[in-house]
Write a structure and sequence with these properties.
Number of helices: 3
Radius of gyration: 21 Å
CATH topology: Protein Transport Mog1p, Chain A
Largest sheet: 7 strands, antiparallel
Order of helices and strands: HEEEEEHEEEEHEE
CATH architecture: 3-Layer(aba) Sandwich
Number of domains: 1
Number of strands: 11
Shape: globular
Distance between the termini: 75 Å
Strand order of the largest sheet: 3-4-5-9-8-7-6
Amino acid sequence: MGLRFMRSGIFGGLIGAWLALLALPAQAAWNGYLNTEAGFSFSAPGAVKSEKSSYKSATEGERTATIFRSVEDNVEYKVTVVNFFGRKVEAPAIIKDASTQFLAGKKVLADSEARVESSYGRKMTVDLPNAGGRAMVGIYFNQGYLIELQVTVLPANGDYGSPDMGRFVDSIAFGAGREQEGATNLKLVR
């Protein structure tokens, strides 16, 4: 009789584990994206939408920008591409300007230099004001474009230690052939 109860217990445990897995939220698949105009690629969960925007640079004034965005499980994944093409700008000055704007009014948790291949940039993590969540950003300059990858974990999610923050920001790659196989080419919005 003991073996019968043991088998029932194992079977019951397997059913319980299966039901627990069904109750977990579905995780969006991460997809590869690239932009050939600015010469970079990245990975993000879910479907990425594009929108036209503008960007205010302290050194260069108002500039046209494109934002690629996806939101999954109360986490916003955003890539901002700002056109400085044809301007006589120095990459370090543009990166410093963008870094200063990102850090303004926030509690800085990390701020360091970042390198992707031969491209220099900054990588920062902040707590947003008024308990607005936590954000991480990677800021780079490539082929005349400022490129910011920013992920924000909103309070509704609350997993401020999520490895997806670093996964997104660190997914950037520069140059042809470095994108994920089957990556979707996203166009800049004019």
